[in-house]
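Hi L., both proteins are below.
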Amino acid sequence: MELFVPGRNRDTQIGGEAALASGDYRVRKAVIPIAGRGTRLFPATRATKKAFFPIIDRDGIAKPAILLIVEEVLDAGIEEVILVVQVPLLDDFRSFFDSISTIHDIDSLPLHLQEYARRIQDVGQRVSYVVQPTQEGFGHAVYSAREAVGGEPFLLMLGDHLYRSHSARSCARQMLETYHRYGRSVLGLRRVPETEVVHYGTASGTWVEANRLLEIARFSEKPSVDYARSNLRISGLAEGEYLAVFGQYVVKPQLFDYLGDHIDHGLRERGEYQLTSALDRVRDEDGFLGLLIEGQAYDIGLPESYLQTLKEFGPQ
């Protein structure tokens, strides 16, 4: 049963704090597109793809980046993780998540890593794959997962971002709890200074809960500073501060209809099928919430940000 019907007063809808009345709308699946050629990390990406770059986690174990993302998703309560991959990379992911290590391989590890090797095997049972035949933009990658997701809401994560919560609840869990509470698509947000808005998708709107939850009125993909000053200011933020995309989304399945429509009609932006314009159609049709995440996102797609991740993500 839909709790929040388009056309009703949004303030009334948001005010209802009961969880969704039907389990039909529980988020069970996550989509993680693994795209990008990693050109900014060349020549390291000739040796191993960006998704497998090593990161030392807080437990002191060196893990490939994609494993950290998948672990966050599963620990938040997701049942199935759908990786959207290119054909040349499919065997690499299957080899990592699906291949069962031999007893000899496991026995050669220290005891704590033997236990972790078995955990990876368990994680692999929850991972499935969708092949994106050609790279035609982020929106196209997400659309490739439409049949695997089916008619369900889903958690969308970036394949080259890691996340570290500032609270006991992971960033992904914060997103899922917000969706299950309000029954509305949710976009994770973070504060960025004015000088950085040109690098991110940015949102504006009005606060539902001050400095935490936003009713999104507008999306803008990598806006100019002038445009941000005129259209994206939000009350309560410091001068020259904006809310940018955090890299996590919980979206209703109607997103696939809008992405499909854009693809059918060749509606490209900067030569590719983008996600932002389809998200804006979801916002217009059903409303969209923006959650200011208690945490930090780490973009490992640039040498300097990868270095920052290595310094800050592991044991402190």
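That was the first. Here is the second:
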Amino acid sequence: MGIMTDNATNNDTFIDSLTYWMEDNFISFDTTEKHFRCFAHVLNLSVQKALKKLDGRLKKILLLIVFIIFIY
């Protein structure tokens, strides 16, 4: 069993607090093995950043595709 979170800082704070509470109550909880970052969230952030960098080029490609469609 583990905990999956996005990358928000407040989730790191929560995991730290949970770890301290578990240690105080003699419960084993290894954050390196039990805390998971949501891969879909990380992937989404990466794609959004890449799309922002490609924004001008993507518009040119879209215009080219539209131009080709209307020619044929």
